[in-house]
Amino acid sequence: MANRGDRADAAGRPSGSTRAVDAAHALDDDDDIAADEAAALTVSVDLPAPVRVAPEEELALSIPDEPISAGQLGLVDTSTMSIEFVGTDLEGSESIDDVDDPGVLDVVPLPASDERQSRRDRMRGEVSKSPESANMLTADRLIDNRKRRRPAPEGSWPAFVYAVTLHLVNLGDSPKVRARKEIDARIDKQFEGGTRFVPVLTRKGGVGKTTITALLGMALSDVREDRIIAIDANPDRGTLSERVNKQTRSTVRDIVTQAPSITSFNDFSTMVSRDETRLDILASDTDPMLSEAFDENDYNVVADLAARFYSIALTDCGTGIVHSVMRATLQRADSLVIVSGGSVDEARLASETLTWLEANGYAKLVRNAVVAINTATQGTSLVKLDEIESHFRSRVREIVRIPYDPQLAAGSVIDYKGLRDLTKDAARRLAAIVMDGLPARRSD
């Protein structure tokens, strides 16, 4: 007999077991709805990027942040030393003991490992415990200075010994060569802060002022790598351009009239004549009427353009020291070269030139001036040159004698390489002395 509970009633309602199954399905539906609601409430959070860990080779080259004490370096025995800190009395008698929290000085010990080596240790041949980077292969670490070969010596005897010993014995340069290189180093003095102007002047004509200007410029250009120019600012028809092979007919007047169109060194170089030593010479006007018109303003135009392209500018001045060109020349001067002959009147006029300069506010230039005594003038053999030198030494910085040379006495084109050795040595010494007196740095 079937169970009464297993039969459906007459109205068609399910039995008890059927209702239990329906209830289970209802619970499953509720779970699905809850899962959907939980998924809808999910929040995404971006985690921070992982911290970069430096490799060992980078740590080997870094500087540790921990301070190093003298005791840890083994320089001081910290076991028997104590340090007492005393506060500064800022307000009344308050000391560091009265401060509520004076702080504690903690010394952090060094890392126990010896992996961080200095480059000095590695230069001694010690092997690093960590891989080295390419930056550690420096020249001072790898090159053995003991195996560097000195340059071949100059001079007859040192060169002979060097060749006979198959380059094993190097006596160095001879004294004469060392003196020459010392002069070269003085001539090749480096400057900062604009062009250096050096006027060459005297109150008397015919003492070799133009020749001294050309010699000085050639000696400078033969050694230095920068540009040197000699400007003929003689308002009475100068002859400086005749000391070199003329390559142009342009003069200072052309520079003045064409100044707005001169924008590069190539434009300027077409108006100068260049010597074999690379000395550039700017000629003066050959027409006396135009020469007299060359005044202070014209010289400033020429000097401003020369200052754009040249490191040193020599100025061959006229004999008229009261001319306006002379005023503009002296205002730009960094040093002076006063030319004197070997006769009594030539030496006296050169000294009077110094007196005029001192009386007109150029005493500083006089003290820094150099006197070049041209011994090729007439009457030199009759005077005591030592007395002339002693007189000028009391007034100027240095004196140089320019010896007689047949090529200079001709008054024509100067072949610098063909001059006598004594003449070239005097010109080089004059150039070195002039460079010594020029400021290496200048703000303007």
Summed up, what is this model?
The protein is 38% helix and 8% strand.
Overall description:
- The protein has 444 residues and is α/β, with parallel strands linked by helices.
- Among the domains are: 36 residues, no CATH class; 245 residues, Rossmann fold, CATH 3.40.50.
- 38% of the residues lie in helices and 8% in strands.
- The chain has 17 helices and eight strands.
- An eight-stranded mixed beta sheet has the order 3-4-2-5-1-6-7-8, sandwiched between helices.
- Strand 7, helix 15 and strand 8 form a beta-alpha-beta unit.
- Helix 11 runs parallel beside helix 12.
- The radius of gyration is 45 Å and the shape is extended.
- The protein starts with 15 loop residues before the first helix and ends in an 8-residue tail after the last helix.
Tally of helical segments: 17
Name of the CATH class of one domain: Alpha Beta
Strand content: 5-15%
The CATH topology of one domain is what?
A: Rossmann fold
SS elements, strand count: 8
Roughly how many Å apart are the termini? Answer: 129 Å
CATH superfamily membership of one domain: P-loop containing nucleotide triphosphate hydrolases
Alpha-beta content class:
alpha/beta
Biggest sheet: strand arrangement: 3-4-2-5-1-6-7-8
* Rg, nearest Å: 45 Å
Q: Please, what is the average pLDDT?
A: 79
